[in-house]
Amino acid sequence: MANTTFQFDLTLNNFFIPAGGKYPIFFFGLLIYLFCVFCNATLLLLIITKPNLHKPMYMILFSLPLNDLIGINAMLPKVLSDIVTESNRVSYPLCVLQGFLLHLYGGGVLFILAAMSFDRYVAICMPLHYTTMMTAKAITCIISLVWGLDLALVTLLFSLQSRLPKCRSVIMNVFCDNPSLLKLTCGNTFLNNIIGLFNTAVFQAISVSVQGFSYVKILITFMVTRRSETKNKAINTCVAQLVIFVMFEIVATFTILSHRFQNVSPDLQKIMGMLIFLVPPLLNPIVYGLYTHEIRSTLLQIWNIKVDVNA
């Protein structure tokens, strides 16, 4: 079959939805989507509009809700639309674009958390040098490196898709990703698999090594310092990042494991795959709202002002 037959006609393997369950599932998913968008957009607006958040830590943090919005908007609206319209068709270009954005989101989570942990390492372990090290130029370089490296690795991965002949038209998932797209081909995918493993290794190695180094150094500083202010800063700013990183790794691990056991139902595998793009955008702004004092106090201040105005 020629590649041109796949330019406008791919079939997604959607969920099995029992009779009467279509609209309850749709509205529940819509509520989750709207809540995620509202919380992450609120965090973005706070960082943009509030001068007390115009600091290096929050300039790097700005990338996290932005990345979460990319992930959830690339995945959930299409899934909800297919549920309510009972459609399972997607054009090949849109399928590739969705997969590209979802992989960009996954790599972005790891790199952004690594950058944030380095910022906390400098702030807590070298407080006297923080203002000279974390300048506007340095922050720009860090953010550019995070997004540039993420974009380069994902572009490399998806650029190899175009060289392969396609002989299938069914995506064995409710959304498009690189493994699903590879299953469409009847060519040799050895190089694609190697690049995929290489990308995974690079994402994990950089993220884990930077965060491991940073948090070990922070822990040592936490244990030897006698200043309660330093200890409180270490707890309040690092716990949120560690919670988000562990949460993301747990969800990703369960997703990978669900595809390694034959007795796991296909619908459960699809749900586990979706959790990677649902759980972090859902919980990240809540975690930062609870553990980051400046964000929490800024939100409470806005709420108090609104209450006074209404009064």
Architecture overview:
The protein has 311 residues and is mostly helical. The chain has one domain (3-300): Rhodopsin 7-helix transmembrane proteins (Rhopdopsin 7-helix transmembrane proteins). The protein has 11 helices and 3 strands. It has helices spanning 22-49, 56-61, 63-85, 92-125, 130-133, 136-159, 178-182, 190-224, 228-258, 266-291, 293-310; strands at residues 10-12, 89-90, 170-171. Strands 2-1-3 form a 3-stranded mixed β-sheet. α4 runs antiparallel to α9, α8 (190-224) packs antiparallel against α9 (228-258) and α9 packs antiparallel against α10. The protein is globular. The termini are far apart.
As a percent range, the share of strand residues is under 5%
By CATH, the superfamily comes out as: Rhodopsin 7-helix transmembrane proteins
- Average pLDDT metric: 86
CATH architecture descriptor: Up-down Bundle
Distance, first to last CA: 69 Å
**Helix-strand topology string:** EHHHEHHHEHHHHH
How many separate helices? 11
Q: What does the radius of gyration come to?
A: 22 Å
Low-confidence stretches: 1-6, 307-311
Q: Count the E strands.
A: 3
Can you summarize the main beta sheet? 3 strands, mixed
**Which strand order do you get reading across the main beta sheet?**
2-1-3
Give the number of domains. Answer: 1
**Overall form:** globular
Query: Tell me, what is the CATH class?
Result: Mainly Alpha
Helix share, percent: over 70%
